[in-house]
């Protein structure tokens, strides 16, 4: 089991940065779909999670090929690229995801409660409005460059691994 948390102070600076981060993680997951398929067949699992303060990479499975899968994820992260069509598709999916959160009373109530309790939190309404105003490909590219330049890493490795 390998888990790394790539923490960046950049994410919580604005609602736009949170939306750009969500877009980035979704595009990264989309890009990894085909190359990581063989790892899935070999019973290796991975998950990319857009956490509040950074990207969480979880990888688990048999230890002899796990570093290869982790390296694949890191390679796609470091050489991040996307097409305008993928960008458009992911932003449309995010609009639907945010909207679905807003129309469910229990998730909206949780969001409002956390907004009251946590200092500096951005509401789902802020994120949805930011996304509806429109994001640019240039803004996403600039955000990803800035994100990768301001990272702090926490990691946990468990299992049959040497130091």
Automatic annotation (TrEMBL):
Q: Which GO terms describe its molecular function?
A: metal ion binding
Database matches in InterPro entries: Metalloenz_LuxS/M16, Peptidase_M16, Peptidase_M16_M
Q: Please tell me whether the keyword Ribonucleoprotein is annotated for this protein.
A: no
Listed Gene3D superfamilies:
Metalloenzyme, LuxS/M16 peptidase-like (3.30.830.10)
List the keywords (alphabetical): Metal-binding
What is the top-level taxon of the source organism?
A: Eukaryota
Tell me where in this chain the Peptidase M16 middle/third domain is found. 1-129
One Pfam annotation reads Peptidase_M16_M
Would the keyword Chloroplast turn up in this protein's UniProt record? no
Q: What is the name listed in the Swiss-Prot or TrEMBL entry for this protein?
A: NRDC protein
Lineage of producing organism = Eukaryota, Metazoa, Chordata, Craniata, Vertebrata
Gene label: Nrdc_1
